[in-house]
Amino acid sequence: MENEIKCGKREETKSGFHEGKQRCKSCGCNYTGGHRGCPDYVKLQAIKYYLEGNGFRRIERLMHVSHVSVANWIKQLASKIENIPQKISK
């Protein structure tokens, strides 16, 4: 994983820890380099709530995730569904 720092440099060496966080050797900024995003089971549960008729803000309150994230997950799912060829039976 590349360590992108505010100063724009890619540092292979770190300047140790300060209050439990890594520091950039060049600019002194803290960074974590940790995992971002929600696990798939959280996304799946949010999508289930949406399909049951709940709104984005309601899902936000229920699951403690951003309503914007929920909307993005729904859009991603919709784009995947649109790519599935439709079979019309007569």
Features:
40% helix; 2 domains; 90 residues; elongated; alpha+beta; single chain
Helices, strands, pairings?
Layout: E1 14-18, E2 21-24, E3 30-31, H1 40-51, H2 56-63, H3 67-82
Antiparallel strand pairs: 1-2, 2-3
Helix pairs in contact: 2-3
Average pLDDT for all residues: 76
Q: How many domains make up the coordinates?
A: 2
Biggest β-sheet, characterized?
3 strands, antiparallel
Radius of gyration equals 20 Å
The side-by-side strand order for the widest beta sheet comes to: 1-2-3
Q: Which word captures the global form?
A: elongated
Helix-strand sequence: EEEHHH
- The span between the termini is 52 Å
The unreliable regions are none
The number of strands is: 3
Fraction in helix = 40-55%
Strand content: 5-15%
Structural class: alpha+beta
* Count of helix runs: 3
Multimerization state: single chain
